[in-house]
Design goal:
The protein has two domains: 234 residues, Up-down Bundle (Transcription Elongation Factor S-II, Chain A), CATH 1.20.930; 109 residues, no CATH class. A hairpin with a 2-residue loop joins strand 3 and strand 4. The protein is globular and about 65 Å long. By secondary structure, the chain is mostly helical. The protein has 16 helices and four strands. The structure holds iron/sulfur cluster. Iron/sulfur cluster binds next to helix 10 and helix 14.
Length: 379
């Protein structure tokens, strides 16, 4: 590292200091690349034992992602260490070539940013810092013009931006009709404002990962060792094959369910309502809680404990002991999850699909309820 080019320039302006401070929390912003160039790192330098701290930190970020947790957001290191460990983590993830790890890493880092954003918006009322975040993240990265009212701690964004960024949220909560609207703007509280762009941060990190041009063979030995260890750990954690696909026999399942299974197989992140549909459907055809939990293992945000709790809740084994029914086709359609085919004709609940067509998928439980009640989040 060329230490003369660190961020310690004596003429640092206030805005530079704010930028550096926030860069440690949001290393995915465009400035991060420039910052690294300033620091003048070369990959081979990471074989130097003095670099082990930052490699440890990068590895810890990836391990947290694998385990479906956010890497300790209350332990922010120096700007250099945060940014470099983020970039190194990206390099290791990319060199692993495990696609599911790309998604888990991106999700974990997006969630970390979410924690920081909520924290910054709630705790820090400095106009400069707020301005930096709104300009560099919301506007700079996602072209969202946000107006912030300090008096009411409320964010306002244009209706068209709201519709664009909430398009994948299928819960009633996010419907435009359930929002406060004023003169073409949607009013949002801090948590909702941040949640709205978390998926965009996730997608941005995925794009950053895809653009990284690195091959395992060209990595320094210190990084190769970590990549090998991370790949082994990934196999251990998931018990999956090296391409990390969970294959589920899909024959006999209705199109709405096949669609969710496909998304999970590809390591994508189905919506909460989609997860509830899948879980209640599978429980409805007689799958065990274990078998249902297994289906979610490939989700980027998989958390074994939370998944089990929620599936048990849907199965009526927890809380109010009410077993949740698979939602009706009309409900599924209203949630945007119906992919009706000719074989769906004449059925009113996905559970009837297998029954009508004689597959083993739908035959196990003929006594299903057919009501509209669903209501939990399955991760
Ligand atoms: S009609 Fe029913 S079973 Fe068929 S895809 Fe739609 S929701 Fe699923």
């Amino acid at each position: 590292m060329n230490s003369s080019s660190s961020n310690s320039g004596s003429s640092s302006s206030n805005s530079t200091n704010i930028g550096s401070k926030l860069l440690a929390r949001y290393p995915f912003v465009e400035d991060a690349g420039n910052y690294l160039k300033l620091l003048d790192y070369r990959l081979e330098e990471f074989d130097d034992p003095t670099m082990s701290n930052v490699i440890d930190r990068a590895t810890a970020r990836v391990v947290a992602a694998m385990r479906g947790v956010v890497y300790d957001p209350y332990n922010v290191a120096s700007v250099d260490e945060e940014v470099v460990s983020f970039i190194l983590a990206c390099i290791m993830v990319k060199a692993s070539k495990v696609k599911a790890l790309y998604r888990r890493f991106a999700l974990s880092e997006a969630r970390r940013a979410e924690v920081f954003l909520v924290d910054d918006f709630r705790m820090n009322t400095s106009g400069d810092e707020m301005g930096y975040i709104l300009n560099n993240i919301f506007k700079g990265l996602f072209a969202i013009d946000v107006i912030y009212s300090h008096d009411h701690s409320t964010f306002m964004i244009k209706v068209e931006d709201y519709l664009k960024y909430s398009t994948n949220f299928h819960d009633e909560y996010w419907r435009l009709s359930n929002r406060i609207l004023h003169k073409g703007y949607v009013h949002l509280n801090t948590k909702d404002m941040v949640r709205l762009i978390r998926d965009e941060i996730y997608a941005l990190i995925i794009r950053r990962l895809e653009r990284i041009n690195v091959e395992y063979d060209n990595l320094p030995e210190a990084l190769k060792k970590r990549v090998n260890a991370l790949k082994s750990m990934m196999l251990e954690i998931d018990g999956l094959s090296s391409n990390n696909n969970v294959y589920v026999e899909r024959r006999g399942y209705p199109p709405c369910i096949v669609n969710i299974l496909k998304a999970l197989e590809q390591g994508n992140n189905p919506s909460h309502t989609a997860r509830v549909l899948l879980a209640t459907y599978m429980l409805g055809i007689g799958k065990s809680v274990e078998e249902v939990c297994e289906l979610f293992k490939n989700a980027p945000d998989y958390n074994e404990r939370v998944t089990r709790y929620q599936v048990e809740h849907l199965a009526g084994l927890r809380g109010n002991r009410v077993r949740y029914s698979c939602p009706s086709c009309s409900k599924v359609e209203s949630q945007g999850l119906c992919f009706k085919s000719d074989e769906c004709n004449g059925i009113i609940n996905p559970l009837q699909f297998g029954r009508r067509h004689g597959s083993s998928a739908g035959r196990n439980r003929m006594d299903m309820d057919v009501d509209e009640g669903v209501g939990s989040e399955v991760r």
